[in-house]
Amino acid sequence: MKWETIKTVPVNNAEGEVENIEIMKSNNYFKIQNEFGNVYFEFDSKSGIEFAEELFTIIYSSIFNDITEFLNNGSKNKNNNKQGNLFKNMSVKNRVVWKWLIF
After folding, report:
1. pLDDT confidence bin for 99, thresholds 50/70/90
2. What are phi and psi of 85, to 5 degrees?
3. Are 68 and 56 in contact (CB under 8 A)?
4. Dihedral of CA 14/87/102/33: which sign?
């Protein structure tokens, strides 16, 4: 298969470093791989949409739960950096979108 890169997306990893993730396409198939090409997975359009919906739901639920926990217990957990840094690496545009989606 001949893969064409559609978009390269920078993501922050657990070590705080930025990795470039490439989204590629070949016919009716897609591939997501790291910038080195040593980690990747391939899928068709249907399963890709199902995966993307599930991934969004998991991340959205996690953030929603973190915010709810912070709002319910925020004053009790002043030393908890997890909630304080929840939106640290998001652009202002994305923060506005998340606030709109969540509230």
Report:
1. low
2. -105, 15
3. no
4. negative
| C-alpha–C-alpha distance, residues 93 and 24, integer Å | 25
- The per-residue DSSP string of 17-84 comes to -EEEEEEEEETTEEEEEETTSSSEEEEEHHHHHHHHHHHHHHHHHHHHHHHHHHHHHTTT-TT-HHHH
pTM score, whole prediction = 0.64
Could you tell me if 24 and 30 are in contact, meaning their C-beta atoms sit under 8 angstroms apart? yes
Burial class (CB in 10 A: 0-12, 13-18, 19+), 32: middle
Name the band, by pLDDT with cuts 50, 70 and 90, for residue 1. Answer: confident
Q: pLDDT by residue (tens digit) across 44-96?
A: 999 999 999 999 999 999 999 888 888 888 656 555 555 456 556 665 555 55
